[in-house]
Specification:
The complex is a heterodimer.
Chain A lengths: L3 E8 L3 E7 L5 E8 L4 H16 L3 E8 L3 H8 L3 E2 L2 H12 L5 E5 L4 E7 L2 E7 L8 H10 L4 H10 L11 H13 L4 H19 L10 E4 L6 H11 L12 H12 L16 E7 L8 E7 L2 E6 L16
Parallel strand pairs in A: 1-4, 4-5, 6-9
Antiparallel strand pairs in A: 1-2, 2-3, 6-7, 7-8, 10-11, 11-12
Helix pairs in contact in A: 3-9, 5-7, 5-8, 6-7, 7-8
Chain B lengths: L2 E2 L7 H10 L12 H10 L6 H15 L4 E5 L7 H14 L5 E5 L6 H12 L6 H28 L6 H17 L6 H13 L10 E7 L1 H5 L7 H7 L2 E4 L4 H9 L5 H11 L11 H13 L4 E7 L3 H17 L3 E6 L5 H27 L1
Parallel strand pairs in B: 1-2, 2-3, 4-5, 4-6, 6-7
Helix pairs in contact in B: 1-6, 2-3, 6-7, 6-8, 7-8, 12-13, 13-14
Classes of the chains: A alpha/beta, B alpha/beta.
């Protein structure tokens, strides 16, 4: 019996994740890459790696989510493009059908998703400020010369966490430097930072939300044991980190493409060898000044987007040159 | 003296008509673009709200085009709007922009200022009250038809197959309405739009999701600052309802003695949850959410500018209303740092949530 597979891609600010699932919905292969500001190149890298294992198999559908979903959806020819909030909620339900709260902390945004009786009933996402998200932890770990694993482990050793100002990441950093120079132990400072981020999460994203167990913690930051411990200390019960916590969005994109996708738009793994160029410009034709984005694959433009009148979507391409 | 005024949704059409009919030259501010944002952010205090920043930039862009006087409203409530004009005037004068400020403050606050502005605006027409009456009647009729057309467009957009065609029809209507100055032809302009929209092919939609928009009036009406939220929802197949509109604002604020029902409605609905007037549209936000909770509305989207006090008070009450009425509520806090992608992501997720909730509610009702 020949089996087909489904591809899911989650293009976030910090990481790009790809998963391949089988027809039962289980993850066969997952790839976690750094986006490094170049979503197309990182997706090409991921496709290249996947292509080695799956190039002889049929990909029956492809789904995309994450902040780069629109761009990557066009580039790879996805059958389904879904926002990352819905994606994380659905993936959490797949893991734990009784889940009531999902905490998701990614590279630049943090979300809370409230689920009751198997459906998403409320959600919130950080606005205006990104303090307390993955990028900041990354940056601080680098500054202290720690890997993220060491960072979390160190926080767990602390007995007396130092209070760090967590409202703003810039001030948090100055506060940490100040505390270091006052001679506090590194583990207490790191644990203090974890608590500050947790406080910031509850005061900002979690404000006014009814947080009930079971709580699932997903997104790249869930790898940080110190943050997990800080959340558990505040909530007073254990939180669950699903096995594939770091690729939950991509997994859901694949699951949804299995469920709904109008099949076979996927351009294939060979995309990794082609030249993909993105061009953006402000359309001068009317006062709306729409920012138009077009993608050119091996010199061949595909319809652009970003316009309000619809002409760029119809495939009008600007003379290039 | 060439007049200008702040932009807010389609208010430029009736205001321009009013001033022109009174015999003034008018330079309306250009539509909100990236440059408007840049100018506003550059010259306004960082923690001023977005409406302050954008209207400040409106004046700059209009003065560059030759405007010599700014006509605007003031206020005396707890909302910072009451100080907009004075603070903006000082900022612009410090920057070297030379213009006259004609401030229409409510009677009792700056009465002398109000009389001066009115005397200037009405000026030579005072001997010709018929002309003033005709100007007001034409401008008001335009505002009424604009609001009516906007309601129709919001109702039909989710139901038609070609959304871009509907948007083009609506824009064409706005252009024709702006140019038409014969009172008796306005209705024809409106019926032409209604006819064209009704004739577009419909989708098989079943019951369409209804979302009510509440919040701060400027952020709601000016699509240039709310990332075209109503249009995004309409494109996703959602009907947008709202009670805030320009004619509603005029009736509820300028003519409140003639239209006491607006205030009665707001108080009646909001007082169980919020007992004091918190300024701006804070109380309306509560009242209209309560109304949504007791009528056939699937969800509420609150739009507010970052640092808006009245709406922050309302926002803190909304979770309670959401639970009480089993009504999903999404708050969109916007400022110049907000991105279109973030707004779209939240709206998409919210609509997914509403669809799932409805499927489940219907399944339950079927059992």
């Amino acid at each position: 019996m020949t089996t087909g597979f489904y591809l899911g891609v989650d293009v976030g600010s910090v990481s790009t994740n790809l998963v391949v699932i089988d027809e039962k919905g289980s993850i066969v292969k997952k790839i976690y890459l750094r986006t490094e500001g170049k979503p197309i190149i990182s997706v090409q890298k991921g496709l290249n790696q996947l292509g080695q294992d799956f190039k002889d198999h049929e990909i029956l559908g492809a789904g995309v989510t994450g902040s780069g979903r629109k761009l990557i959806g066009k580039v790879i020819g996805a059958d389904l493009v879904k926002n990352e909030i819905t994606a994380h909620g659905v993936a959490a339900l797949q893991v734990n059908p009784g889940v009531k709260t999902v905490i998701e902390i990614g590279g630049q945004d943090s979300k809370i998703i409230i689920i009751r009786e198997g459906t998403v009933v409320d959600f919130a996402m950080n606005t205006v400020c990104a303090a307390g998200t993955g990028s900041f932890l990354d940056q601080q770990a680098k500054r202290l010369n720690l890997s993220l694993e060491e960072f979390g482990g160190l926080a767990l050793r602390s007995k007396v966490p130092v209070r760090i100002a967590g409202r703003c990441s810039v001030f948090a950093e100055s506060d940490m430097i100040h505390k270091q120079q006052m001679g506090y132990k590194l583990e207490d400072i790191v644990a203090g930072l974890c608590e500050a981020l947790m406080r910031n999460y509850f005061n900002n994203v979690g404000k006014g939300k009814e947080i009930l167990p079971p709580v699932l913690f997903q997104g790249g930051v869930a790898a940080n044991k110190g943050i997990k411990a800080a959340f558990e200390k505040e909530l007073g019960y254990e939180i669950i980190i699903p096995e594939h916590y770091e690729v939950m969005g991509a997994w859901d994109a694949a699951l949804l493409s299995r469920k709904f996708g109008k099949k076979m738009g996927f351009r294939g793994f060979s995309l990794s060898d082609r030249e993909i160029r993105v061009e953006s410009f402000e359309c001068p034709d009317c006062p709306n000044c729409c920012e138009i984005v077009t993608v050119v694959i091996d010199g061949e433009p595909i319809p652009g987007w970003g316009g309000r009148c619809g002409k760029w979507e119809k495939g009008v391409s600007r003379a290039i040159g | 003296m060439r007049l200008t005024f702040p932009r807010m949704g389609q208010i430029d059409i009736p205001v321009q008509t009013l001033f022109t009919e009174l015999g003034h030259q008018v330079v309306p501010p250009p539509p909100v673009t990236k440059r408007t944002f840049d100018l506003g952010v550059k010259y306004a205090p960082e923690f001023a709200c977005l409406p302050f920043k954008i209207t400040l930039a409106n004046y700059i862009e209009a003065i560059e085009k030759g405007a010599e006087a700014v006509v605007t409203f003031g206020g005396a409530g707890p909302c910072r709007f009451g100080y907009f004009a004075q603070v903006q005037k000082r900022i612009l004068h410090d920057l070297g922009y030379d213009f006259e400020l004609l401030l229409l403050d409510p009677p009792g606050a700056e009465t002398r200022e109000l009389l001066r502005a009115l005397r200037f605006l009405l000026g030579k027409n005072l001997k010709e009250p018929g002309r003033i009456w005709r100007a007001i009647r034409l401008a008001w009729a335009k505002a009424v038809f604009l609001d009516r057309a906007n309601r129709l467009y919001r109702r039909l957009l989710p139901r038609v197959a070609q959304k871009k065609a509907a948007e083009m029809e609506y824009r064409k209507f706005l252009r024709v309405m702006a140019a038409e100055n014969d009172l008796h032809r306005l209705e024809l302009v409106y019926t032409a739009l209604a006819h064209n929209l009704e004739n577009l092919a419909r989708l098989e939609t079943g019951r369409v999701l209804r979302v009510k928009i509440v919040g701060e009036i400027y952020m709601i009406l000016e699509s240039g600052v709310n990332f075209h939220t109503e249009n995004i929802l309409g494109q996703m197949g959602v009907e947008v309802a709202r009670s805030v509109s320009m004619t509603h604002w005029v009736e509820a604020n300028l003519l409140k003695a003639l239209f006491p029902e607006h205030r009665r409605r707001t108080e009646l609905l909001s007082i169980p949850y919020l007992t004091s007037f918190v300024g701006g549209h804070g109380r309306e936000t509560i009242a209209e959410t309560v109304d949504a909770g007791t009528n056939r509305v699937d969800g509420v989207v609150q739009i507010l500018p970052f640092t808006c006090m009245p709406e922050l008070v309302a926002q803190s009450i909304l979770p309670d209303l959401s639970r009480r009425f089993n009504l999903p509520v999404l708050s969109l806090v916007l400022d110049e740092h907000s991105g279109a992608a973030g707004v779209t992501t939240r709206l998409e997720a919210f609509v997914d949530l509403l669809r799932q909730k409805r499927e489940k509610d219907e399944a339950k009702a079927g059992v």
